[in-house]
């Protein structure tokens, strides 16, 4: 696949000021996590011109080792998975550019994206794969705590590995109770630790009682020693846990899509139809940024659906012009 240079290094604020001599990209992908990289592989293998722009903060980079990622029976770290997905996409000819898209506009039939450094791209379709950013607990050595699995961020992902641990969920009280009840599948010893003052609803208080989940006072500090997390609570009691799941909310990276009027849910996550298109024609969304379950397998499924839908909407690219395409199958790029 031929790669496409950005439209211009321009500081102009008008999308129509971007040079139009080159045809627009078939698709600009914003974000190179599992979703964006998988979409890039699909589009490259459909002989489409796709560029991925990435700010380099994939949520997957935090994963010490995932054990539920299909095809990795012995687990895979987030960085290893990202490296493999990147090698696969670039191996088929997709281009990945470092940058942060700050503005997205329409110029007639095409989208114009502008990065923070002024770089611009024109594209017929745009795929938003920008993910979410977790709100993290304030504690010394947070990265080390995640690497050692004493802090875990996703019960669906890795509660199996925390089976029979002493587990705490650290969150506003109703959220803490519902997550703690979910975690009771994995351990008899699960408590809810308040991250802020508040009383549970009657229904949640009953749920906690039924599931034998204790609800503890507000934490005043959280530390870890490499093997355990230690909470100090506002009543001065001290509690140790093998694993803590903080559930403190997240920041959906949907700003650029919202500039075009893309619809979001109450968490600012994008709404998409069954082909992953937002309410804006030509603007697709995949992965964690879309409302729903935040998982790698969901992100790559979204990517396959969206990339195929985009390919099918683009003008046909029948294989017949040897000048424009590699002459023989043996000349096609592959990893
Ligand atoms: C500790 C931890 C453990 C996890 N374990 C698992 C697990 O075991 N199994 C599992 O299935 N899932 C797991 N997850 C969830 C998984 O990481 C996410 O579901 C997955 O990374 C989502 O992929 P994505 O491509 O949608 O978003 P991301 O991977 O977050 O990638 C989004 C990319 O877009 C970039 N970006 C954002 N805005 C812009 C912009 N304006 N311009 C350019 N680039 C931009 C970001 O910098 C980032 O690189 C875990 C998450 C965490 C935090």
Description:
With 335 residues, the chain is of the alpha/beta class. 24% of the residues lie in helices and 25% in strands. It contains 8 helices and 16 strands. Strands 1, 2, 3, 4, 5, 6, 7 and 16 form an 8-stranded mixed sheet that branches. A 6-stranded mixed sheet has the order 13-12-11-10-9-14. The protein starts with 7 loop residues before the first strand and ends in a 22-residue tail after the last helix. Residues 1-19 have low confidence and may be disordered.
What's the helix and strand layout?
Elements: E1 8-9, E2 25-30, H1 34-45, E3 50-54, H2 78-91, E4 95-98, E5 101-107, E6 110-115, E7 119-128, E8 132-134, H3 142-147, H4 155-158, E9 167-171, H5 173-183, E10 190-194, H6 202-210, E11 214-224, E12 229-233, E13 238-241, E14 243-246, E15 250-252, H7 255-259, E16 283-285, H8 296-313
Parallel strand pairs: 2-3, 2-7, 3-4, 7-16, 9-10, 9-14, 10-11
Antiparallel strand pairs: 1-7, 5-6, 6-7, 8-15, 11-12, 12-13
Helix pairs in contact: 1-2, 1-8, 5-6
The structure holds flavin-adenine dinucleotide.
Succession of helices and strands: EEHEHEEEEEHHEHEHEEEEEHEH
Structural class: alpha/beta
**Helix proportion range:** 10-25%
* Broad CATH class of the largest domain: Alpha Beta
Categorize the overall geometry.
Answer: elongated
Judging by the overall fold, what is the CATH architecture of the largest domain? 3-Layer(bba) Sandwich
Number of helices: 8
Total E-strand runs: 16
Share of residues in strands = 15-25%
CATH fold name of the largest domain, please?
Answer: FAD/NAD(P)-binding domain
Hetero groups: flavin-adenine dinucleotide
Poorly predicted regions: 1-19
Distance between the termini: 13 Å
CATH superfamily of the largest domain: FAD/NAD(P)-binding domain
Total number of distinct structural domains: 2
Mean pLDDT: 93
Radius of gyration: 23 Å
Q: Could you describe the largest sheet, including whether it forms a barrel?
A: 8 strands, mixed
GO molecular function: oxidoreductase activity
Organism: Noviluteimonas gilva
Region (Disordered): 316-335
InterPro entries: FAD/NAD-bd_sf, FAD/NAD-binding_dom, Ferredoxin-NADP_redctase_2
């Amino acid at each position: 696949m031929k790669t496409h240079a950005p439209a211009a290094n321009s500081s102009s604020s008008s999308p129509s000021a971007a040079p139009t001599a080159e045809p627009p990209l078939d698709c600009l992908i914003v974000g190179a996590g599992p979703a964006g990289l998988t979409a890039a592989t699909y589009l490259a293998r459909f002989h489409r011109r796709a560029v991925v722009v990435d700010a380099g903060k994939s949520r997957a980079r935090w994963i010490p080792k995932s054990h539920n990622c299909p095809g990795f029976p012995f687990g895979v770290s987030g960085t290893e998975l990202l490296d493999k997905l990147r090698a696969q996409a670039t191996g088929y000819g997709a281009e990945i550019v470092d940058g942060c898209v700050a503005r997205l506009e329409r110029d007639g039939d095409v989208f114009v994206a502008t990065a923070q450094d002024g770089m611009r791209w024109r594209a017929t379709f745009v795929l938003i794969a920008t993910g979410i950013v977790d709100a993290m607990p304030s504690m010394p050595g947070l990265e080390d705590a995640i690497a050692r699995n004493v802090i875990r961020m996703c019960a669906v992902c890795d509660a199996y590995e925390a089976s029979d641990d002493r587990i705490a969920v650290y969150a506003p009280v109703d959220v803490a109770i519902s997550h703690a009840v979910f975690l009771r599948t994995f351990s008899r010893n699960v408590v809810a630790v308040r991250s802020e003052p508040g009383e549970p609803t009657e229904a949640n208080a009953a749920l906690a009682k039924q599931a034998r989940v204790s609800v503890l006072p507000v934490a005043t500090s959280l530390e870890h020693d490499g093997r355990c997390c230690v909470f100090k609570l506002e009543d001065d009691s001290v509690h140790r846990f093998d694993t803590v799941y903080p559930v403190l909310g997240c920041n959906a990276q949907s700003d650029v899509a919202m500039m075009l009027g893309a619809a979001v849910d109450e968490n600012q996550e994008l709404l998409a139809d069954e082909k992953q298109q937002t309410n804006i024609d030509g603007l697709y969304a995949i992965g964690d940024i879309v409302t729903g379950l935040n998982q790698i397998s969901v992100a790559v499924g979204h990517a396959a659906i969206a990339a195929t839908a985009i390919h099918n909407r683009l003008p046909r690219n029948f294989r017949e012009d040897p000048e424009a395409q590699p002459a023989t199958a043996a000349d096609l790029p592959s990893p």
